[in-house]
Amino acid sequence: MSDLSAQGFDFISSFESAVQKKDSEQQIAILQKALNEHGFKSAIMSDLALAVANHNLPYINFLEAFCDENAETPHGAEIKLADYYAGLDKLDETTARARRFVSKFRGTETEKNLSQHPVLATMFARCYLLMTAAYTRLGARSYSKRILNKAISLQLPKAFEERMKKEIQTLDTELKLETNSALDAKWEAFFSDGSNYTELYNICKTSQFPQLAKRIELLDGNYKFDPSFKVDEAEMLMDIFAFRKNADQNEPLSFALR
After folding, report:
1. DSSP class per residue in 164-209
2. Among 65, 72, 60, 129, which Cα is nearest to 101's?
3. What's the average model confidence in pLDDT over 250-255?
4. Which of 136, 140, 188, 213 could bond to 204 as cystine, CB 3.0-4.6 Å?
5. What pLDDT is recorded for position 179?
6. Is pLDDT of 230 > 60?
7. What is the predicted pLDDT for the residue at 226?
């Protein structure tokens, strides 16, 4: 085990060495040292988070804390978390994490010129596919189709584009079933004017999709207080933000879509 107290300690090289040796105790010690000395918002911690994600290491709590502490900054660890939750069939968290990554590029030159950033374009493609997870599971298949069509318009890698087109075909097939089309119609009415809010909110809650429940609760509020509000492509990439109106830490959190 290397000396963690040495002057000029090289966090990244030491961590990579611990990964190669499959020394989980050393890996955790290095992450803890980096957190103690530099904090979650440091460049060193960003590099370590990427290493954890790239090596598929099981430090999910670490990645969650890192991403939550850097909520305004895009990072590949967010996609690792989305993939991880998809594997656990926790699709509410899958959709939320995937959306959060993409939303950080909303309206930027990078988003407009994704073809010049092939690695990022692949990350975008994975996120758009994962974003559909919660909606498809709870019956909002037409919304999932809009997500995928939006992704296709971004000229993402061809392999992903073909996969998305096949997924759209699958959704169209599923919508031919009367029960699926009836539930989808309720979602579409909600996305049009807020109809069926209570029923859909209860579906989200009883299915244990709290983030999607909070999202449609906020959408319902927008419909009530802003007659011009529409669920469109801009809404698709809005994220949920928690905040306090005052500095009082005892004040309950408020939530907003933006």
Report:
1. HHHHHHHHHHHTTSHHHHHHHHHHHHHHHH-TTHHHHHHHHHHTT-
2. 72
3. 77
4. 213
5. 98
6. yes
7. 87
Q: Is the pTM of this model over 0.90?
A: no
CA atoms within 13 A on the CB side of 98: 28
* Residue position matching structure tokens 């407009």: 112
Q: Look at residue 88 and tell me if it is in a domain.
A: no
Residues 115, 98: Cα–Cα separation, whole Å: 20
| Average pLDDT, rounded, for the chain | 91
Q: What pLDDT sits at residue 1?
A: 46
230-242 burial string, b = 16+ CB within 10 Å, else e? ebeeeebbbbbee
Do 149 and 45 share a structural domain?
no
pLDDT for the residue 2: 52
Q: Is 89 left (phi over 0), alpha (psi -120 to 50) or beta?
A: left
Distances (CA, A) of 213 to 92, 114, 202: 9, 31, 8
Tokens of 208: 């244990």
Long-range CB contact pairs, 31-36, < 8 A, 24+: 31/59, 31/62, 33/4, 33/9
Of 246, 241, 227, 205, nearest to 103 (Cα)? 241
Place of tokens 């960003």: 46
Whether residue 204 lies inside any domain: the answer is: yes
> Phi first, then psi: what are they for 255, rounded to 5°?
-130, 150
- What proportion of the chain, given as a percentage, has pLDDT over 90? 74
In a domain, 217, yes or no: yes
Q: Which two tokens stand for residue 257?
A: 């879509």
Range of the domain at 23: 11-70
Judgement on whether residues 128 and 51 belong to the same structural domain of the protein:
no
- Contact between residue 124 and residue 152 where contact means Cβ atoms under 8 Å apart: no
